[in-house]
Amino acid sequence: MTTRTTHVIQHVAFEHAGVIGNALRARGHTLRVFQAGVDDLGPIASEPADLLLVLGGPIGVYETDAYPWLEAEIALIRQRLAAGGKLIGVCLGAQLIARAAGARVYPGPREIGWAPITPTPAGHDSALAELAAAQWEVLHWHGDTFDLPAGAQLLASTAAVPNQAYAIGNQVLALQFHPEVMPRDIEAWLIGHTVELGKAGIDPRTIRARTARVGATVAAAGERMFARWLEQAGL
């Protein structure tokens, strides 16, 4: 098996690679995790990996005054885009890639909880088609949205947030939602986001109960989706 490396930018500990990590390791990838705002991200640029995976987090791309290290992270992603390097972005990661590609990121309708996405025709023809096995249901957890970057292809939408997933050729897969989450991790999400849930008036028991019903099915479909994209991307 070919040995490959994936660099992972993680913003909070409980939003980790999940089933993406499973798909990567199955294909011979070694994951090297960098904690944003804590670790030096320099090696991501100086020692480029086969893939850069940028994960989610509860801050906004535009909050660079409060979190000044975001500027360096965006610049690093912009450099990788320009070099033709492969990227996967999830939630904040998808927003960071959009911003690095020159698109606007801004507060939008809040979506938290399990709900379906609607694939575009391009989405049906992409790796996202694996989510059909889960009736297109995924975990949403965001309060921001973004404009579609120039040259990107829209893959999925919801009624509230039209830009839910996009691709840039075989180089980028960017997802606003969270198909990477393993059901066993949902409690960490409920604890870590307790303030946000309270402000939104969402009962954690609702998310916990739905996770028990659909979480395993969505995680399995998500792992197949990421594996399919990696194969298509030559990774």
Automatic annotation (TrEMBL):
<feature type="domain" description="Glutamine amidotransferase">
    <location>
        <begin position="20"/>
        <end position="185"/>
    </location>
</feature>
<dbReference type="GO" id="GO:0003922">
    <property type="term" value="F:GMP synthase (glutamine-hydrolyzing) activity"/>
</dbReference>
<dbReference type="InterPro" id="IPR017926">
    <property type="entry name" value="GATASE"/>
</dbReference>
<keyword id="KW-0436">Ligase</keyword>
<dbReference type="Pfam" id="PF00117">
    <property type="entry name" value="GATase"/>
</dbReference>
<dbReference type="GO" id="GO:0005829">
    <property type="term" value="C:cytosol"/>
</dbReference>
<dbReference type="InterPro" id="IPR044992">
    <property type="entry name" value="ChyE-like"/>
</dbReference>
<protein>
    <submittedName>
        <fullName>GMP synthase (Glutamine-hydrolyzing)</fullName>
        <ecNumber>6.3.5.2</ecNumber>
    </submittedName>
</protein>
<dbReference type="InterPro" id="IPR029062">
    <property type="entry name" value="Class_I_gatase-like"/>
</dbReference>
